[in-house]
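At this stage, I wrote out one protein, both as residues and as discrete backbone shape codes, and that material follows here.
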Amino acid sequence: MRAIQMTAPGVLEQVEIPAPTPGPGEVLLNVGAAGACHSDLHILDAPAGVFPTPLTLSHEVAGTIAEVGAGATGWSPGDRVAVYGIMGCGRCRACLRGLENQCRTVPVGGIGISRDGGLADQMSVHASRLLPIGDLDFAAAAPLTDAALTPYHAIEVARPALRPGNWCVVIGVGGLGHMAVQILKQTTAVRVIAVDSRPAALDLARRLGADETVQAGPDAVERIRSLVGPPPGGADVVLDCVGVDATMTTARNVLSIGGRLMLIGLGGGTTPVAAVADAPPPVPFEAVVEMPFWGTRAELYEVLALGREGLIHSAVQTFPLDQTIEAYRQLRAGEIEGRAVIVP
């Protein structure tokens, strides 16, 4: 069968490999769609030895069950499912509480990260990773497993601060940010400010319900402050879906005292948090800086419910499997609106 694999650090190739056989407790999945995520670029760019090779990429997967392996109960061939990509140990205190995204035994890993993912005609996956998607289109369902789950989890963590009438700033209206805007508008009564450098992304944010949009740049902080007010007030929550130095600087400079800064994007930026005695603190007093990671299976169930009800949807650009490398080129160049999705 066909697969798109990282065959060496930085090398992405379309290859022919044997079709997988489902092991005990696993199912064989005919891949209906697989999302291309910025995290995949981080995997490609990582030094040798950090991730296994060869590795079939994509942790955002939806498809149809083709075969059920021994001991995999509750599922039948023909079932339409999405894949929860995290694979915790199942035994530590966090996993036993359903917080596999906080597993204390297994390093960060899972589908398309530490084992083969969905950029192939078929994949094997443990039945415990599956959730039903009903009649959701595969290309719409696949991005919900990360591009929607990750901001949904961050919003759940910050929900005590997302009170009616409060301000939330979403920085970066890409794969994560365009879902964050929708989730905020559908599950809270906050006022949403979307920030991006691309006019098309800001247009998308407005279509998705953002109350205000701000062009990223030297005057972005001033423009946001004109909406949220001067210090010690400001934005009650900031979701930084980019995570580079520039966006993190904007985030902390518009945050309210006691606000919550959620660092969702993995752009490699840094922000100071230590207070100094003779100058304003780099982060407002009483503020919380958090790094939420992916989400839980229970949260993915809720995200898929929002999708099935038509309350949120993925803005996608689809590519056939043999154009996957071009999709990643466009993703790296910032040319994708919403999410790139590969449809084998």
Notes: Residues 149-290 form a domain with the Rossmann fold fold (CATH 3.40.50.720). The first helix runs from residue 38 to 45.
